[in-house]
Amino acid sequence: MKALSVLHPVLAVVLAPLLQGIIQRVKAWFAGRSGPPLLQPYRDMARLLRKGAVFSRTTTWVFRAAAPVVLATTLGALTLLPAGGLPALLSFQGDFLLFVYLLALGRFALILAALDTGSSFEGMGASREAAFGALAEPAVLLGLAAAIRATGELSLTRITASAGSGGWSASSPALLLVVVSMLAVFLAENARIPVDDPNTHLELTMIHEVMILDHSGPDLALLEYAAALKLWVFGGLIVGLAVPARAGGPMMDLAAFLAGMLVLAVLVGAIESSLARLRLLRVPQFLVGAAAASALALVLLLR
To answer: How many CA atoms, within 13 angstroms, populate the side-chain half-sphere of residue 72?
Structure first.
């Protein structure tokens, strides 16, 4: 089983951009359009890799290091994430803390790069990212704390395994609240509607996209790929908790996990097609609500 754990990172590295393609096609279907090809994210990244990078004279090594650091931290978080019945490539007691803080380190590197440009627009986006990240992280940690309480395990692999072997039957209301909270954080962390719009071109309303305006060529390709991997990582965390069924075989469990990721991508496309973007003043309330749902789940389990 441990030897099979390498399958998930390999599949994630290959299939992560496909999630973005599925979301775009679902949104196009809701709008009555044919939409871009499913493989369009791969084509965009390949085109960027063939171009040269342009760096502002005001930037330093901090700006140039951001893209590799963001990609490395996201890949590190991926190795800690299980997939269905397959254990994570790296698993140990308390690995959920490393999981959260690797993603936080990637955010920190991107914020520093945005500030390093000296651009007022990118600085504005960096301040929003820092503020909203400070509200999203407690929701994740409280949700994981509730899952730990429900399953009695301290590693992501054991948490998802215990959820599938009886955790939902014993603590379904609390775990449902955790999944709802994680879905809200998923939308916020991946710059999706109703928190952010990945397709917007208005700098005054951007959060994530405005921070990468000065990146180009291979650096921008790395950041776009890291964003696709981050979408997969948060989606995998939700699917691992929300799809407790186990088929009894590792390959069948992996197939169920991939089916769950497909359903999640379709759900995100439907959400983005049916909801409007929140005003920036409402985003903190949205994230506080996610943290409150996680806190309520923890209270239910501590009774």
So the answer is: 8
- Residue 126: partners with Cβ closer than 8 Å, 6 or more residues away: 110, 111, 114, 115, 211
Would the pTM of this model clear 0.85, i.e. be above it?
A: yes
Query: For residue 83, what are the β-bridge partners?
Result: 86
Task: Measure Cα distances from 33 to 28, 40, 199, 294 in Å.
Answer: 5, 15, 16, 38
Calculated CA dihedral for residues 289, 77, 224, 219, nearest 10 degrees: 130
Two tokens, residue 259: 């089916």
Dihedral class, residue 152 (left if φ above 0, else alpha if ψ from -120 to 50, else beta): left
* Opening angle at CA 82, ends 290 and 152, nearest 5: 65
Query: Two tokens at 82?
Result: 């299980």
Is the preceding peptide bond at 244 cis, omega within 30 degrees of 0?
no
Picking from 198, 179, 189, the residue whose alpha carbon sits closest to that of residue 99 is 189
Distance in angstroms between the alpha carbons of the first and the last residue of the chain: 36
The backbone region for 184, taken as left when phi is positive above 0, alpha when psi lies in -120 to 50, beta otherwise, is alpha
Write out pLDDT tens, residues 231-271.
999 999 999 998 876 666 778 888 889 999 999 999 999 99
The secondary structure of 94-140 as a DSSP string is: THHHHHHHHHHHHHHHHHHHHHHTT-HHHHHHHHHHHHHHHHHHHHH
Q: Is 84 helix (H, G, I), strand (E, B) or coil?
A: coil
For residue 54, the tally of other CB atoms under 10 A from its CB is 10
pLDDT tens digit string along 123-156?
A: 988 999 999 999 999 999 999 999 999 988 899 9
